Q: What sequence folds into this?
């Protein structure tokens, strides 16, 4: 037995300069950032206040940061795919199949699991406790563990760039292609272990948020008073709890096939590959709604705030959200109508899939009527929302087309399908994440983002989106399959080139967003959010200063109606001062920070790496390390730290004074 | 805790505005504010258990699909020995019973009685794992390992996943024994033991399903 | 593949329906381009599927376009700077509007649901095509990375070329010698998954002579782009002549030749086997013949870390 298992120098792709250079660059950047932190003496701050933080706000911010960094990685993959298809007409292009296949697999995996998921989970983490009027989530340390396990998955997947290879079988590893016979390399193992580890994190986060929403709301904040975003977060996390265990089980089965020669999905000994498709889509379809429901929540908040109106048809929205939540478990088979299950089964699942369009349509109309009669301000978050409403209905339409089995028989697995799901996920989830980022950024950091760069980014993104994906619809109708590394059909070539132009426009959009962040940080003193309500908001998070103190609420709010903050604000405007009396402050207990999450994740990465490379001793070391970490954590005696009431009073009174001033000057 | 009254409006005519909240319910149902820690921890752990049930249901479904795919090899009727499995079942159920007694002793804060019942719980759990290991080793030695057919693959995975849960439970139990011994009955430690017993009883429920659906029905054919 | 691409470049009369369809689907479709797509079907299956796509799009556009226009109009009219807009910040609930917003999508889906149910049954790929002509049996095997077409009654086989008599229903039995694939020709019609150890049935029919592009639509590994095939539709008389001239000529497809084919290769030029061992297809489906062996046997240097497709 070799000490390092399968690992040797042949694992490093010296023959492929692109991943090698990219990986090298990433390593240099990471080392540079670490060196900067150490050299500037920021290490204690970063370690104590961020890495060890169990504060839901900081954890939310770190989730979103992770998502944005991974968005760049995933987008570079996309750009390489588009340029390859531009040059690979009657030519092999510049990416050989073994590399190109890794790129589209990595693109899908990263965009879903490490961009869309952490972005929405991060926003949920940041916003939901604030909207519920509470100090933290139900299990703060578990929250930190969840974050760092997600980051572990990210690290493993990105490690595959320079050590070994990534999966080459697509973002879902359909067997038998993903079985050891047809994919003997380490790529599928990287994929599986990366997702298993981050999946545990996702599940832990889901349990946390559901418990928080169901059991920890502020007094009086009954279900029918919760902001829409909390409702959608609840629905989404319920789906996580019900769906992610299936993913864990399915990937475990695939891993058993690969590692121990089991026969779940193999061609031989009675394995059943169709079972994999059923199982993975029983997770996979709800996963789509795990992403889109919180996005709907963000749009609900944004459209209502920037129309200066309460959300129209609140009850309908709740019903629609929960209807989507339930129906999403009844449609998985529409991902494989072409398996040939017959007219009855296909018809049933086709109709069930279309039924989801009903509550979704209701939501669109309700946002429309929220704007109706309102005072619409075209700030950047609102622009993303309107672009979403327009673009998403097109994606929904092509989705219903694909839900008709006979139409699917000629569109399945073509670029039409690719265009469709980008058409729902980009405006649906990504635009929502951007809207939420712009909308809650001042709450998190105390200053607003630059509008001009934000609008530039918006236009590049939206125009780029249409330029990139309209051609894909056409290429799909012209019969081009997805995942083509090269092709000979001339009529596809022009569309591929147009799509590349679209991707370049999106690149400009991303660059504008980077510029926006840089410019905003440099001019932060002119763009301070002084009293914590920059958008004339309506829900409880806007009652707090920006950024909110660690304990969020100086005293727990007692809610007696819908839109409690708005009601309070109207009264305050009338009197030109805050009408609620100064409360009696008390000492507050907050959970202590802990490195448990980070250390656990360290050992999780160690175990994942050991499993991928068959380094069994390292696996044992990692397991013992993780266990020891949990024991040490559970042994600690002082679990909370006290924030003295003087501190609480100081922070709250300061904010009251600023708000009173703003009220007198008529700025609120 | 002092609370700030936030008088909201009632734009949706749901009839809530102005209604005073009931402050002492403390169940987290909205009116009363955040529930006490014990409720939150128990609730969260229950949700975890539900998610675990979902995972097991995936393995059960897989077993149902692959049960008849024996690839020409032996099926459940030829392989399962119901006597050994009945012993296993007895050990696990008794272990759960001991776990229940342990919880009662913990309520009374009797250290040694609690520790003793924890030990009994653990030993019976160990007997279960040992018997299951023996059954597995026997099957493998006969050449009916999980690699020989899809049916055996599904069987070993479903039963083995439960066995893995029991083994992790044993590790957890040992840790809790040490913690109770060194730290006594602190509130948060009692919560952990409560979670452990929820876990242990949940594994019983799963085992009853496995015993019925895999072994009893399997032997009957 | 040259014949196919030249065929694809070939100008073809477009029906008015096609123009409308493209105008619908791609607002930026450039006039003057020639299309070969699912909108230019050459057989009854593709034709029926095209009509379903057009119907459903038409139905949905009736809602989608007004919704988009209304969104833009409402957002613009109620912009903060518009003094003429009548503000009503308390307009947050209306039972009548709720009824309408639920019923519009519900009715649409009810209608489309009916279309779905009926068409799912009518166009099930396994449903025999009605025709006075005796159907032709073809056995299809997906391999790494090529298509094997066996004509059991004629005793011949082809690689990467489906020779089809015009106007004759093709009763295709499909399996895979390797991973999952789908047999698909955009202008002909349906696709279904082909899987090892399983036998699927699908009916095709080509009504217009010509050469059409076909490929696998389901990604199957590194050689996937080189897995396309040609659907060569010829008049029945020519087909008989082709069978006559092929049978007994050229290579023989027996077990040994099949095992040779199992090895990974892609971009194969079409060729024919003059003779096929009877029952070969059944042996593949029943797994008497083993599935493909993947890249390990293809002479890889370091297959368990980073396998590279053999040249």
A:
């Amino acid at each position: 037995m070799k000490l390092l298992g399968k690992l040797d120098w042949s694992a490093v792709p010296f023959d492929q300069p692109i991943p090698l250079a990219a990986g090298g660059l990433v390593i240099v950047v990471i080392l540079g950032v670490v060196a900067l932190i150490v050299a500037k003496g920021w290490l204690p701050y970063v370690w104590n206040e961020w890495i060890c933080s169990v504060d839901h706000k900081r954890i939310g911010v770190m989730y979103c940061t992770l998502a944005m960094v991974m968005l760049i990685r995933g987008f570079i993959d996309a750009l390489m795919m588009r340029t390859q298809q531009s040059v690979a007409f009657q030519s092999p292009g510049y990416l050989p199949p073994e590399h190109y296949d890794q790129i589209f697999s990595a693109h899908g995996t990263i965009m879903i699991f490490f961009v869309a998921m952490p972005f929405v989970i991060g926003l949920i983490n940041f916003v939901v406790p604030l909207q519920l009027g509470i100090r933290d989530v139900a299990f703060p340390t578990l929250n930190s563990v969840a974050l760092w396990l997600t980051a572990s998955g990210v690290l493993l997947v990105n490690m595959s760039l320079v050590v070994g290879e990534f999966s080459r079988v697509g973002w879902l590893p359909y067997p038998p292609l993903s079985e050891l016979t047809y994919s003997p390399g380490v790529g599928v193992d990287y994929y599986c272990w990366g997702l298993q580890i981050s999946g545990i994190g996702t599940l832990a986060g889901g349990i946390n948020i559901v418990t928080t929403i169901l059991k920890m709301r502020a007094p009086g904040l009954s279900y029918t008073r919760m902001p829409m975003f909390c409702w959608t977060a609840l629905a989404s996390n319920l789906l996580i709890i019900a769906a992610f265990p299936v993913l864990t089980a399915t990937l475990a089965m695939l891993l058993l096939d690969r590692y121990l020669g089991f026969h779940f999905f193999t061609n031989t000994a009675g394995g059943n590959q169709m079972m994999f498709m059923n199982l993975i889509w029983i997770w996979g379809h709800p996963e789509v709604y795990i992403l889109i429901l919180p996005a709907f929540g963000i749009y609900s908040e944004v459209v209502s705030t920037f129309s200066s109106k309460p959300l129209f048809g609140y009850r309908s929205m709740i019903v629609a959200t929960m209807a989507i939540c339930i129906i999403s478990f009844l449609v998985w088979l529409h991902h494989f109508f072409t398996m040939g299950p017959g007219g009855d089964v296909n018809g049933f699942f086709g109709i069930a899939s279309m039924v989801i369009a009903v509550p979704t349509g209701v939501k669109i109309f309700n946002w429309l009527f929220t704007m109706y009669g309102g005072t619409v301000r075209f700030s950047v978050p609102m622009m993303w929302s309107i672009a979403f409403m327009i673009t998403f209905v097109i994606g929904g339409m092509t989705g219903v087309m694909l839900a008709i089995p006979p139409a699917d028989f000629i569109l399945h697995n073509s670029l039409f399908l690719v265009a469709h799901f980008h058409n729902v996920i980009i405006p649906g989830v990504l635009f929502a994440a951007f809207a939420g980022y712009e909308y809650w950024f001042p709450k998190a950091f105390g200053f607003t983002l630059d509008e001009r760069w934000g609008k530039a980014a918006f236009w590049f993104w939206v125009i780029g989106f249409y330029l990139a994906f309209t051609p894909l619809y056409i290429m799909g109708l012209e019969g081009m399959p997805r995942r083509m590394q090269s092709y000979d059909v001339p009529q596809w070539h022009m569309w591929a080139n147009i799509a590349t132009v679209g991707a370049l426009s999106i690149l400009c959009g991303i660059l504008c967003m980077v510029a926006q962040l840089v410019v905003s940080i440099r001019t932060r003193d002119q763009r301070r959010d002084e009293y914590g309500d920059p958008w004339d908001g309506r829900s409880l998070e806007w009652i707090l200063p920006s950024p909110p103190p660690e304990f969020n609420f100086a005293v727990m709010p007692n809610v007696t109606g819908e839109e409690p903050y708005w009601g309070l604000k109207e009264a305050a405007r009338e009197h030109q001062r805050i009408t609620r009396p100064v409360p009696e402050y008390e000492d507050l207990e907050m959970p202590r920070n802990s490195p448990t999450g980070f250390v656990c994740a360290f050992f999780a990465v160690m175990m994942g790496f050991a499993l991928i490379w068959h380094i069994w001793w390292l696996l044992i070391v990692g397991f013992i390390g993780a266990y020891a970490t949990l024991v040490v954590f559970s042994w600690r005696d002082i679990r909370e730290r006290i924030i003295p009431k003087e501190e609480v009073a100081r922070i709250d009174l300061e904010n009251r004074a600023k708000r009173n001033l703003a009220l007198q000057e008529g700025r609120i | 805790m002092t609370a700030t009254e936030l008088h909201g409006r009632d734009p949706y005519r749901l009839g809530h505005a102005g209604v005073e909240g009931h402050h002492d319910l403390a169940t987290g149902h909205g009116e009363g504010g955040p529930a006490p820690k014990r409720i939150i921890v128990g609730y969260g752990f229950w949700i975890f258990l539900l998610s675990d049930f979902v995972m097991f249901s995936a393995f059960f479904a897989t077993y149902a699909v692959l049960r008849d795919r024996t690839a020409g090899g032996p099926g459940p009727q030829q392989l399962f020995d119901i006597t050994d499995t009945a012993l296993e079942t007895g050990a696990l159920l008794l272990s759960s019973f001991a776990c229940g007694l342990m919880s009662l002793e913990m309520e009374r804060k009797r250290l040694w009685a609690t520790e003793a019942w924890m030990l009994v719980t653990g030993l019976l759990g160990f007997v279960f794992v040992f018997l299951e290991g023996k059954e597995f080793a026997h099957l493998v030695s006969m050449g009916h390992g999980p690699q020989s057919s899809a049916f055996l693959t599904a069987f070993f995975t479903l039963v083995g996943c439960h066995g893995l849960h029991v083994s992790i439970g044993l590790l957890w139990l040992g840790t809790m024994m040490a913690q109770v011994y060194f730290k006594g009955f602190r509130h948060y430690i009692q919560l952990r033991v409560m979670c452990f017993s929820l876990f242990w009883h949940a594994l019983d429920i799963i085992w009853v399903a496995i015993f019925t659906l895999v072994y009893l029905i399997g032997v009957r054919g | 593949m040259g014949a196919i691409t030249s065929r694809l470049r070939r100008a073809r009369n477009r029906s008015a329906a096609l123009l409308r369809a493209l105008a619908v689907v791609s607002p930026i479709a450039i006039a003057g381009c020639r299309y070969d797509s699912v909108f230019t079907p050459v057989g009854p299956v593709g034709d029926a599927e095209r009509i379903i796509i057009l119907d459903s799009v038409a139905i949905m556009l009736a809602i989608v376009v007004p919704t988009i226009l209304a969104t833009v109009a409402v957002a613009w009219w109620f912009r903060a700077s518009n003094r003429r807009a009548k503000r009503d910040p308390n307009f947050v609930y209306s039972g009548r509007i709720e009824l309408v917003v639920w019923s519009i999508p519900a009715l649409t889906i009810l209608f489309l649901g009916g279309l779905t149910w009926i068409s799912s049954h009518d166009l099930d790929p396994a449903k025999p095509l009605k025709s006075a002509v005796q159907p032709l049996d073809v056995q299809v095997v997906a391999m790494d990375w090529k298509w094997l077409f066996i004509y059991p009654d004629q005793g011949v086989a082809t690689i990467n070329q489906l020779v089809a008599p015009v106007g004759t229903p093709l009763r295709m039995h499909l399996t895979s010698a390797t991973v999952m694939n789908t047999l698909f020709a955009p202008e002909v019609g349906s696709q279904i998954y082909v899987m090892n150890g399983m036998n699927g049935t699908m009916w095709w029919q080509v009504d217009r002579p010509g050469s059409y592009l076909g490929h696998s639509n389901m990604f199957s590994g590194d050689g996937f782009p080189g897995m396309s095939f040609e659907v060569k539709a010829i008049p029945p008389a020519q087909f008989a002549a082709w069978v006559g001239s092929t049978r007994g000529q050229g290579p023989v497809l027996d077990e040994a030749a099949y095992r040779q084919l199992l090895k990974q290769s892609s971009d194969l030029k079409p060729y024919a086997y003059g003779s096929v061992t009877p029952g070969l297809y059944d042996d593949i489906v029943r797994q008497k013949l083993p599935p493909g062996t993947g890249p390990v046997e293809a002479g890889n240097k370091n297959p368990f870390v980073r396998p590279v497709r053999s040249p």
Observations:
- Chain C has a mean pLDDT of 87.
- The longest strand of chain C covers residues 136-143.
- Helices of chain C lie at 2-9, 16-25, 44-77, 95-122, 236-246, 255-262, 280-285.
